[in-house]
Specification:
Length: about 90
């Protein structure tokens, strides 16, 4: 299982939202097909076909817990993450 897969499982389980590293989370979103743009400390992710826009900010190298929850909700709502998501 790759690091991306492990991170995806960790996010989907929702047991450690306060302990998700910021940069790997951003990379996961890019790998899921999101376009990234940066405006100051805001990392803004959007994807064609998805109405929601994710606005993430780092806090001491980690993602904010409520933002990880938003990412999880988007992944689940739009069934992103490929075939591995079914095994979670």
């Amino acid at each position: 299982m790759s690091r991306q897969d492990k991170l995806l499982v960790k996010i989907l389980l929702g047991t450690s939202d306060a302990n998700i590293a910021f940069e790997p989370l951003c990379q996961l979103l890019v790998n899921l097909g999101f376009e990234k743009r940066i405006q100051g400390s805001h990392h803004i992710f959007s994807k064609e076909g998805i109405e929601d826009i994710l606005n993430l900010q780092p806090k001491q190298g980690k993602a904010k817990p409520y933002q990880v929850k938003q990412v999880r909700n988007i992944i689940l709502r739009y069934q992103l993450g490929g075939e591995d998501e079914d095994s979670v």
